[in-house]
Amino acid sequence: MNTKHKLSLLLRVRRLLWYFIVIILVVVAISMTLARSLISNVGELRGHIEDLASQYLEQPLRIETFDAKLIGFTPTFIFKNVSLLERSSNKVMVRFKEAKVGLSLFNSIKKRELTPKSFVINGINLVVTQNKNNTFKIQGIDVAEFDPTKNISTEDSNELSNWLFQQDKLKLENSTIHWYNSITDKVLKFSNINLVMNNNEERHTLSGDWQLQSSIAKRFKIELDMNGDILNPASWEGAAYVKGEDVNITKFGIPTNLIPLKPASGIYNFEVWANFKLGQLKEIAGSSNVRHLKFNSSKLNTEIKIDKMSAVWRWDNLADGWALNIDRFHYEVNKKVWPLSRVLVESHHRHQPSSVIDIYIDELDIEDANQFVQKIKLVEQKKLIKLKKIDPKGRISNTHIRFNVADIFSDDFMFQTDFSNITTKPDAYIPGVKNLTGVVSTSNILGSMIVDSNEITIDFPKMFRYKIDVNKLTARLDWRFLNKQWQLSTNNLSLNNNDIELNSNLQILFPEKKSPYIDLQVSFKKGNIASAGKYLPVSIMDQELIDWLDTSLKFGEVKQGGAVLRGRLNEFPYLNYGGKFEVSLESNNFELEYLKDWPKMHSASADIRFTGSGFDINILKAKLLNSNINHANIYINDFTEPKLVISGEIDSTTQDIFKFLINSPIANDSRSIIENFKITGNSKISIDINVPISEEMQKTQSSYYSGSVDIQDSKILFPNVNVEFNDINGMLGFSEKGFNSDNLSATIFDKKAKLRIYSLSKEKTYSHHILVEGAIDSDTIKEKINIPLMENSSGTTKWQGIFNFGYSTPKKQIPASIVVTSDFSGINLDLPSPLYKAKNSKLPISFESQFISNDEFNINLSLDERIKIASSINISENAFKLVSANINFDSNNKIKLNDNIINVSGNIKSVDFSEWQDFIKKLDFGSNKASSDFITRDFKIIFDVDSYYITVIEDDDSTLTDKNKQEVSNVIKSSNIDPRQIPEFSGEIRNIYYGTSKVGTLSFDFEHTSNGFDIKKLNLVSDDYNVSSTGIWHIFPNNNKLSYITKFTNVKFVSTNLGSTLTSLGFQSVLNKGKSNSEMTIWWHDSPFDFSVKKLNAEISVNVSDGEILDIDPKAGRLLGLLSLSNLPRRLFGDFSDIFSSGLSFDTAVGKIRIANGIISTDNIRMTSSPAEIHILGETDLVKRSFNQKIKVIPNLTDTTAVIGGILGGLPALIATKILGGIIDLDKAEMRTYHITGSWEKPIITTIEVPVPEEMSDDDEF
């Protein structure tokens, strides 16, 4: 048989054998089942089974029921409700619900006996007791809940334990183990345990997992491989792996001998790998994750909550302790996560009863650590409170902490770390810091700190108001506990910032029950005096004094200085000599604003000294404005009652001295006035100032100052009025009550003068005044005051002036003003009426100017009650402009000033406007500009005049009344007046007098247009006549130059008594009665004020009725009257003595009159009367003053006839013609024609004999 055939046969035999075994197993299983149901003696069978099982399990047992199954290919015996018995007493050791014994067929065939393959116990209840000697005992129980006081066996038997761990392979399913710790008297219940044990003499392996109660843990898993007595941990040697999921940490507990804490809650997940030998842990490594952890401590009365904590760690057993290395430590609390860090904790016994712990931390936020320390209260309560107040923040690294578990701050205590960006809050005498970096090392009695920091901040409110920024700080601070007190010292603290560079030595003692004692010595340089207030001990100062320091020390350099602070801090500022505090400075180029509203000192050098009670600033040199201070001292003797005292002397120019006065409360109200003065010369001033600083002192004391100015050979120029005070000498005193001086002298207007400066009390303030008494001559008036019409004056007069500086009261503001008075005695004034004055007569003059602001002032001028002028004037760029004015003549009318209005009122008598107009045109108030800039067209002149007297000047005044001849005035002459540039004017003159005759009331309104004026109204009204008119006054271009036209249109002249009207106008009347209703248009090519007869043009329609021509000359045949305002001829007609009687009444006089360039032409003026009819035709030359007229007289044979001339007109112009010859004989009358030629003075009248036709029309011409 070949090999291949042999192998095939063996395979078939093997397969048959296998089938046989399977069939046998099936048959056995079926047989056992049939036997269980068919055999009637069950007890006999149970006994055989129990014996068989006891033999197999090597332990007596009882079985309630049994079964057999083929589980897979393994025949399995199943025993129900099994009781395991002691060998000696058959007492039940343990019960379990079920035991499954699987047979190994091959081993059984091989050994020819039943050999178990597997052993499974289901539903066993065990108690594992951890004895106080750290050994274990195992026993079974029958109850679901274990009670150690009732269910624990007192017998010292290990039979159950030995049986369990002698099984080669044992599997526990769905079992329960109660773990009882007799040391802590705590019980843990492990349910649903599934565990596999393999035992080989001293070698034991264990693998399994189990579930606990939901309140304890979710799941446990364990792997164990060890040698030794399993009930005696001291003999163990091997390795273990344990994994726990969602373990309730409070049910298991953690070692609490390290910190006095007790877990109150927490969910723990972990994996642990451990190695042990002879019952000692050699190393443990693992990873842990704890959530919702909370610790309680009844001893510390605190609670700590941790949101999450995790780490990878390793624990090693050392010769004298242990070491715990924690890596990737993650700590999260209140949603704040600590930075990942590495922590090493070592515990050493060192032959001591308690352990010493060393903790090494790579990195830690101090804020987190402080919160942790506050919670677990690692230090005593007082220090915890201190830590909480200073609230440290920042980061430490390379930290080493050592302490004894029994007493943290014993001699074993040690702390060492690097720190960076440390921030703390100040507390009492411990300053706060920000951004501090350095190294600290300390034990429980001594230590040191090395600081090397940039850009830090020191906060020490007990000493300083403000936080102090430091650019660089280097120091070594040492401390130690000696003689029951802490000592802090440094020998080289160096600090610099933008304000100062300093070095200091410091020693502070902190006695147990006394205030700290400090000894600080500081030297500094390169300081900023403006920052001195930051470094002064403000706690000893009133707030008002602190404010003064802040506002006063503005700028300056500290050349060098030093400070000393020595004494107990609670005795600061050492007013009773219990200690010493002093700061001294040498300063250069600093500014000092010593008081509000006073000019500051600058460019000063001074020695400054601060003590606990006050300060003293000794000014060595300084400037005040542009003045040099010879010496000054500023001090406060007592900070508790701070009164600032300032004294000093200034030697400078008078200009700078006055600047000081007006830039201080001494004369601040007069600043706007005095700063415009130009002052030269030199003066000296001395001053003392006392000011209570605190509010309490101000309630009982007032500020006061006093001093004097020694004025030497000084000069003051008042630029706006061109007045100089020269050679001023004398002493001027001042105080808070004003000025006083009685011995000042000066030269004013080249004359010696006396000056008195004084102040008066005014409603809780003071007004200042300068009184001047001097003399002035007319030449100086012409030169200095520049009044044009003073050119014709001469002589010298005395004057008195008062300059009143402005001031303010709670209710009103009083502006500065000047009042100058003089009676002008000794001055001859050759001026137009009404200002003419002889040398020895008096003309009281009062001039007052109020300075409302820098660019506005009011002027009031009074001339012996004759003329009163009130005006407001604006100054802009050295040019003067009128704002408003009131001009009042011989009256006391008071009219309010209104912008852009000139009011004219009063009674105008004897005013020569031609002269006064020239005066006004010359006014420029020193501005060198024309008067057109002084008064602009935006103004309006409003007349509200009560009376106005007019008289016309004529070469031949035979037509004027005697009184007219005595009062020749009020003729206005003008040239080149541009109507577009002068103001509008309107108003009323209620009573116009022409000589002694009342003319009437004049009302007028001149309104601007683009070309000049439109005359909206010009009315002259009296009791018996009315003249009304409109018109224009325009300017227009004409051959590259400007031309003018003045035209009166719609002129209506209505009179109910023409004779009376002529008389009221001041003419010798040629008429009696008579009614007029005439119309005319009048114009000339010039301004209204530049009227002349050669320019006159007019068109006049004459209509006069019911009048009578008077006989005012006894000689018949004479022309008795032809008058006009335009100087028309007074005589026109010839001799009619053979026709007329002494008077002639007429019915009408009508006709047309034309005037062209001063030549009057009449167009057949016809006068009708009872005696005759008179026709007038021809010309009258007003310029050459000559006649060329024909007069035709036609007698009325049925009536007594007289011949009358016509009205020729002017403005208005009346031509009155009267021909007298007495009463004529009507029977002899015949028509006659007269031709008048020659001059007005010598007219030539000739008769033209012309026969009259039988029939002649009324309209026939000559």
From TrEMBL:
Keyword Ubl conjugation part of the UniProt annotation: no
Signal peptide as annotated in the record: none
Residue ranges of the TM segments: 16-35
Annotated keywords: Membrane, Transmembrane, Transmembrane helix
Domain called YhdP central: residue spans: 9-929, 965-1245
InterPro entries in the record: YhdP (IPR011836), YhdP_central (IPR025263)
Protein name: YhdP central domain-containing protein
Protein's organism: hydrothermal vent metagenome
